[in-house]
Amino acid sequence: MIERTLFNADHEAFRDSFRKFMEKEIAPHHEAWEEQGYVDRAVWSRAGENGFLCMSLPEAYGGSDADKLYSVVQMEEIARAGFSGIGFGLHSEIVAPYILHYGTEQQKNRYLPRLASGEMVGAIAMSEPAAGSDLQGVKSTAIRQADGSYLLNGSKTFITNGWHADLVIVVAKTDPGAGAKGTSLLLVERGMPGFEKGKRLKKLGMKAQDTSELFFDNVKVPADNLLGGLAMEGRGFICLMEQLPWERLQIAISAVASAQAAIDWTVQYTKDRKVFGQTVAQFQNTRYTLAELQTEVQVARVFVDKCCELIVQGKLDTATASMAKYWCSDLQCKVMDECLQLHGGYGYMWEYPITRAYADARVQRIYGGTNEIMKEVISRGMGLGGR
Ligand SMILES: Cc1cc2nc3c(=O)[nH]c(=O)nc-3n(C[C@H](O)[C@H](O)[C@H](O)COP(=O)(O)OP(=O)(O)OC[C@H]3O[C@@H](n4cnc5c(N)ncnc54)[C@H](O)[C@@H]3O)c2cc1C
């Protein structure tokens, strides 16, 4: 195996401490959380108390000033263990960065320390029943009133952490006639009159991850809750585009870690399982299949590690991040399918980690921009036109 050079000793020490946290606070409960359809709220508080949320935020806002690689370690560990109910990545490395990068000082002071402590759970609501890939087609509106506040109307769907969320970054049109240029981001808090949560959606996988519908019926959002203040009105789409490379890379990071875990489980399983008087691992088909998968995962890991270096240097471009997202999530699904096959009927039983990982993997090709949209982005970067 090619030695990884991405992490230093501090990152690896952090990996150990986060593993211990998962063993104590997540592993004993995750199966029950899958059955109830959401993680207990307490795990957010426990993570906050232990400094495992929003680590890359500056200390002044409750973070640890940690470089992004600590978050990469955390994502890898969650994916490796198959704890797909844990939405820390979206909270810490998608929601918080929007506020850090675009928020006013008042917004940073109000929200970031509470996200870092786990007092607030964060979500981001872009997708709507009729607008997923086509984000410019968002129908939710936030119309500025005479007193400067915004009247928010619309509905969102498929929102990760939506049911637990205390703070939701909502994508809405402040100027419905202006297309992408009329899009803004609003900070909507739990309890604002007119903001209701719909049902938690039942999913193929990621069963402990709460994924909800959100409804906004004449929600009066104070002027202070427009992300970045009035100067950022109409600039929401630009913010979304700027944040995409890191968001997409996060999917690739978890894809590679999950795929590696699946190979490791399968190596072990096939060495233990005996059929026709020999282990499944002794069949040439098994050995070649696993050799091929390990080769591809190694290639993916080297590519993703390079992308991680680039993101730390602020140099990861959108097309390359899209390549990582599409290729690694496709690979993850292929690895899960072939590893499940090598488990035989046991691979179809929920009690086996490969079964859960197979179900969890499928959405990675869909969210964060579908893999078809990734190919649109890549081909556009090649000067091939398209959307
Ligand atoms: C578990 C889960 C969690 C999610 N979490 C969030 C979240 O936290 N926040 C959030 O805002 N959203 C979230 N989403 C939504 C997700 O981002 C969207 O589902 C995704 O972007 C696709 O949109 P859609 O479902 O409307 O599919 P559609 O846009 O209707 O796509 C249907 C099909 O058409 C294809 N297609 C669309 N446009 C093109 C094109 N131009 N060229 C070729 N093919 C095309 C797609 O690739 C797809 O195969 C989540 C979704 C899931 C399932």
Break the fold down into its secondary structure elements and pairings.
Blueprint: H1 9-25, H2 30-36, H3 42-49, H4 68-81, H5 88-102, H6 105-117, E1 122-125, E2 141-144, E3 150-160, E4 167-173, E5 183-189, E6 195-200, E7 211-221, H7 236-272, E8 274-275, E9 278-279, H8 284-312, H9 318-342, H10 353-361, H11 371-381
Parallel strand pairs: 1-4
Antiparallel strand pairs: 2-3, 3-7, 4-5, 6-7, 8-9
Q: What's a concise summary of this model?
A:
The chain has 387 residues and is of the alpha+beta class. Helices cover 48% and strands 14% of the residues. It has helices spanning 9-25, 30-36, 42-49, 68-81, 88-102, 105-117, 236-272, 284-312, 318-342, 353-361, 371-381; strands at residues 122-125, 141-144, 150-160, 167-173, 183-189, 195-200, 211-221, 274-275, 278-279.
Question: What does the model show?
Answer:
It contains 11 helices and 9 strands. The longest helix is centred in the middle third of the chain and has 37 residues, at 236-272. Strand 2 (141-144) and strand 3 (150-160) form a beta hairpin. The strands form 3 sheets. Strands 2-3-7-6 form a 4-stranded antiparallel beta sheet, with no helix packed on it. A 3-stranded mixed beta sheet has the order 1-4-5, with helices on one face. A two-stranded antiparallel sheet has the order 8-9. Helices cover 48% and strands 14% of the residues. Helix 1 (9-25) crosses helix 4 (68-81), helix 7 packs parallel to helix 9 (318-342) and helix 9 (318-342) runs antiparallel to helix 10. It folds into 3 domains: 9-121, Acyl-CoA dehydrogenase/oxidase, N-terminal domain (Butyryl-Coa Dehydrogenase, subunit A, domain 1); 123-234, Butyryl-CoA Dehydrogenase, subunit A, domain 2; 238-381, Butyryl-CoA Dehydrogenase, subunit A, domain 3 (Up-down Bundle), CATH 1.20.140. The protein is of the alpha+beta class and 387 residues long. It starts with 8 loop residues before the first helix and ends in a 6-residue tail after the last helix. The structure holds flavin-adenine dinucleotide.
